[in-house]
Specification:
Radius of gyration: 13 Å
Oligomer: single chain
Low-confidence stretches: none
Number of helices: 2
Strand content: 15-25%
Helix content: 25-40%
């Protein structure tokens, strides 16, 4: 069903964000909780082959830290349902959990 697919995609995104969060080294003095948007291209193995900043958080040091953390998180976790795999992911990242 559509609801199960939506839930599966949310779990998948959450797993990826969790892995990235474990690898990030946040820069000092972040104002607020800015959001950056990255496009990540991966192989079916979860190996990251490209990371592109689509929308900056407004903090170049934070953007660079997120990008390093995404690369360090390769291979990314796979979805529980293999059919939910996406070669290109949009990853929204905020330094502090909502």
């Amino acid at each position: 069903s559509a609801a199960a697919r939506t839930r599966g995609l949310a779990d998948y995104a959450s797993k990826i964000r969790g892995k990235i969060r474990g690898n990030i080294v946040l820069p000092q003095a972040i104002q607020g909780n800015p959001e950056a948007l990255f496009e990540v291209t991966q192989l079916p193995t979860g190996e990251v082959i490209a990371v592109r900043l689509k929308r900056s958080s407004g903090n170049a040091n934070l953007d660079a830290a997120i990008e390093r953390a995404i690369l360090k998180s390769s291979p990314l976790p796979k979805p529980d349902q293999p059919e939910l795999f996406q070669r290109t992911l949009e990853i929204r990242y905020r330094p502090f959990e909502e």
